[in-house]
Write a structure and sequence with these properties.
By secondary structure, the chain is mostly beta strands. Helices cover 2% and strands 36% of the residues.
Length: 303
């Protein structure tokens, strides 16, 4: 007897008796909604299951998720999540996805309002998309601290305004506690003088990917920096405008780092030809230049 196959668009009966429809590939688990901007939002039982009555905070929504079933949290346009202390937002449920809905001023925002404010990533296989991370005070020490494997940031913004800033926006953990970090299609804009890195790979993780991002700002040791010996990295198709007047580094990775570094474009404020320092990586079609030059040069210079 023939049977009807399951399609990606499926229906399920909610506890209130009405049906909703979703793509099983994208929503294998529960779906939650967060919106501080919605009148009547509440961190309470019975809320969060539809966009008309969302949870008030992302932190509470994370706590409603279940490990390893692929729960998805949608942050609604205009949502603001204030992170006012160390570990003020902890992502500690395996396999969740957080998706911001909205663009420009309506893009959901995570505002870091204390120097030690940070977002901790303490569970594996978490993805965050479409969120605006914003410094709300001077010298946030490290905005996102990744201590788990397979963390992905996609299509997010990271901004300071010269007065408010993050010294480091994203940093990994030691050894293999944070393998396979992916940062892609993101924009970093932070020109405060005290900044050190946009992305800091201090540990010895494997298979990190940093691709198709834009970095515009002031970083004393490089926009993409790695003191640890990273294995099988992919640093590709990034555009970096490093405005530090005496530091020439846009990409600066340890000599023992392996992988590929390709198709990056780096402009810096210093005249020396070290816009990209990545001795151990395979390099191809990277260009470096000095701010104000009309054209960049192959970096390293072809021989």
């Amino acid at each position: 007897m023939a049977t009807t196959p399951k399609r990606p668009l499926f229906d399920r009966n909610s506890q209130y008796g009405w049906y909703d429809y979703g793509n099983f590939e994208k929503h294998p688990g529960n779906i939650w909604f967060v919106g501080s901007c919605i009148t009547g939002c509440a961190d309470a039982f019975g809320w969060g299951m539809n966009p008309d009555s969302p949870f008030a905070t992302l932190d509470y929504a994370v706590g409603q998720c279940v490990n390893s079933q692929g729960d998805v949290i949608y942050c609604l346009p205009g949502h603001v999540e204030t992170v006012a202390a160390a570990a003020g937002l902890t992502l500690d449920v395996i396999g969740i996805t957080i998706i911001g809905v909205g663009q420009g001023v309506y893009q959901p925002t995570v505002a870091l309002t204390a120097a030690l404010s940070d977002v901790l990533v303490n569970a594996a296989s978490i993805t965050v998309e479409g969120i605006h991370f914003m410094a709300g005070i001077a010298d946030v020490v490290a905005a996102i601290d990744v201590d788990a494997t397979d963390f992905t940031l996609r299509n997010c913004r990271f901004t300071g305004d010269g007065t408010f800033n993050a010294i480091i926006w994203i940093q990994d953990g030691a050894a293999a506690t944070s393998d396979r970090i992916t940062v892609e299609d993101c924009v970093f804009a932070d020109n405060a003088a005290n900044n050190t890195h946009a992305i800091n790979f201090a540990g010895t993780g494997t298979q990190h990917i940093v691709r198709r991002n834009q970095f515009i700002g002031h970083w004393s040791t490089g926009a993409i920096f790695g003191a640890g010996a990273i294995i099988a990295a992919n640093i590709s198709d990034n555009y970096i405008y490093q405005i530090h007047a005496s530091v020439d580094s846009g990409i600066n990775l340890a000599a023992a780092t392996t992988g590929v570094c390709m198709n990056n474009r780096v402009n810096t404020g210093n005249a020396s030809a070290n816009q990209i320092t990545a001795i151990g990586l395979g390099k191809c079609q990277n260009y470096g230049g000095i701010i104000g030059d009309s054209n960049g040069l192959l970096e390293p210079i072809a021989t």
